[in-house]
Design brief:
Strand content: 5-15%
Organism: Actinocatenispora rupis
Domain AB hydrolase-1: 66-227
Number of helices: 9
GO molecular function: catalytic activity
Shape: globular
Pfam families: Abhydrolase_6
Distance between the termini: 35 Å
Order of helices and strands: HEEHEHEHEHHEHEHH
CATH class: Alpha Beta
Number of domains: 1
Largest sheet: 7 strands, mixed
CATH topology: Rossmann fold
Protein name: AB hydrolase-1 domain-containing protein
Structural class: alpha/beta
Number of strands: 7
Length: 240
């Protein structure tokens, strides 16, 4: 409110999916591997777009348990492999962060409704960079790598994908979006507690410990889905 009782106008920078650099030097198109799962009943809930970790075997295929959990909960689930991962063609050694972010954003804008972006590991790093280009309905960063508090990606990316590994370890932190969506930072039992807390504070987000079954398995998605029902419920659920 202003001093005279009138409402102040707050100007927020628009989210630009396409930028001048994309027109001047466009990213080469790629035929992306995408896995989809939809619930048996029609739903108006925000769909989930999963982005895998660099270490996930089979890229998008590794997220099948999360796709099944999403559909069982009544939400459509999609998983995309950025270029050079899984069955998506592309350079494995020379791929850049810009190309990976492009792949994520392109799949998100193709969905019929604003999506919830869920990134795992290095996929969470990509999602964080995509936020200033895509107005997600909500964001979930699961065991994020390459972000403040937990930047070291491991020797694998540094040796096998030097450009990506260097960007993970030494690259610029992603810009925080002007219109920040609801955001959850989640980690399994082995994820550093200090990193989870630091990221939650940085993004003004909620931190959540996720239960993990067998070693190396994906964390349980049930607490994430319960959180989503609170922050982005389906429109028909609001009317019920």
């Amino acid at each position: 409110m202003n001093g005279d009782g009138s409402r102040a106008t707050v100007r927020v920078a628009p989210t630009r999916v396409w930028r001048r650099w994309d027109w001047a030097k466009p990213v080469r198109p790629a035929q992306r591997e995408v896995r989809r799962a939809v619930p048996s009943a029609e739903t108006t809930a925000a769909p989930l777009l999963f982005v895998p970790d660099l270490h996930d075997p089979g890229a998008a295929a590794a997220l099948d348990p999360w796709l099944a959990a999403a559909t069982d909960h009544g939400r459509a689930g999609h998983a995309v492999s950025p270029r050079g991962m899984g069955a998506t063609r592309g350079r494995r050694f020379g791929v850049t962060r810009r190309e990976w972010v492009h792949d994520v954003v392109q799949e998100a804008v193709a969905l019929p409704r604003r999506a919830v972006l869920v990134g795992h590991g290095t996929g969470a790093w990509l999602v964080a960079h995509a936020l200033h280009r895509y107005p997600a309905a909500a964001v979930v960063l699961v065991e994020p790598v390459g972000l403040p508090g937990h930047r070291f990606p491991g020797l694998g990316p540094l040796l096998r994908r030097p450009r990506i590994g260097r960007s993970l370890l030494l690259g610029r932190d992603p810009a925080r979006p002007a219109q920040a969506p609801p955001l959850l930072v989640a980690g399994g039992g082995a994820y550093p507690a200090k990193a989870l807390t630091a990221l939650a504070v940085r993004y003004g987000a909620r931190g959540e410990r996720l239960p993990v079954g067998t070693p190396g398995a994906l964390p349980d998605l049930a607490p994430v889905l319960a959180w989503l029902d609170e922050v982005v419920p389906a429109p028909d659920a609001q009317l019920a």
